[in-house]
Amino acid sequence: MQVQIQALLAAGGAGGGGTGGEERRTMGAKVEVATPATFNGEAGKVGGFVMACRLYLRMKMREGTVEEQVFWILSHVQGGLADIWKENIMEELESGEIEYETAEKLLTTLRKEFGGEEEESVKAAKLRKLEQGGRMMEEFVQEFKRTARGSGYKGRPLVEEFKRGMNGGIRRKLMEAENPPTSIENWYRRATALDRNWRESRREEERLRGKKEASGSVPKQEQRQSLPQPLVWQRRQMSQQATTGPAPMEGVERTSAVVVRG
Question: Do 87 and 125 have their domain in common?
């Protein structure tokens, strides 16, 4: 059976195999589909592995038999605890103890074995640490959705985590709105729109500022010119006279006089 798995793995890498091979090769020539990375039993990766398998089976092995699809999935399960699980599954298949009606049944079994509560706790912990930061809201929403899926968060708790993770300015504007959003989908939609409008406004301000600088216009405080030199001299003379009195006339010495009253 191990030889059969290796043969299926080689056929899958070539873009086809088993019944309907000609149709799969035609489809493979039109659409490139990445094969899933090898799964070694790590709980945090089981969701991505299952999703990648589903995509590949649908695009490349739709016409394959259930047996071919099952063995193809098992061929990508290697290393760590996954090896022991795969060995047990293969022995049960050979002995006839189990039989999968569809490849999806095997994927469900695999997810329950390596995901379950542990995967949920990992996603929940990641969701509680997720923050928007300097990213666009669209990026934050997509990552939040991906992390929330399978985390156990639903309804109001999910909304609260989303509000916590977004930037404070957007959160305050939405909460202070006349009709604040209530459902998580409304929060996604309105937060994305508000963030997009804010970024567009910033870009417009930068564009106008650059246009003013290019035309040579400067702020008023930068437009003040120095006073002409003669006027500066006159103002200095006036200031000195106000404090020390008028300057003595030419040829006349300034003297001090004492007046004695009888």
Answer: no
